[in-house]
# Entry
Amino acid sequence: MSRPAKRAASTREAATKKRSARAEGGEPGALVEVGARAPAFNLRGGDGKKHALAAYKGTPVVLYFYPRDQTPGCTQEACDFRDSHREIVRSGGVVLGISPDSTDSHGDFAASLGLPFVLLSDEPSAEGIPAVCDRYGVWQKKSMYGKSFMGVVRTTYLIDGRGRVARRWDRVSVRGHADDVVSALRALA
# Structure
């Protein structure tokens, strides 16, 4: 094997090992810092349509990541954003939720709760990693009942009309969170 071919094979092997390590609970992507450009995405929503961050240029976006449809904390968070939706729209913003659940699951979840905003599906790749969750740094090691696993850590980004992160809430506690987001959105204006 030639030297360039060996180098290429070695690079492919390293990338494969890295993907495997990530799927098995290795280091997640870093959270996007305040002031940084928000990573682009184009995901299908529970409404069956594709939604790209670029389509919201000029509009503040409340982008919230949550672990799973139909669970108590995620249901409460969705309902709180639903109940605050009128105020978010009055403040010039839109709400988008993202989780690794399927578009069918999102459609059912949104319909059951009467959500006036779209839930986007970031289904995991063959390696088990949802790409957008990873790019935003919310795909992290978690533990429950003494067991470690990779999953979405509840995080919200407020993205300004220029596509930059204006505010970030990490490891969100649901109670009062939607009110905090509305206050931050008003401060953007």
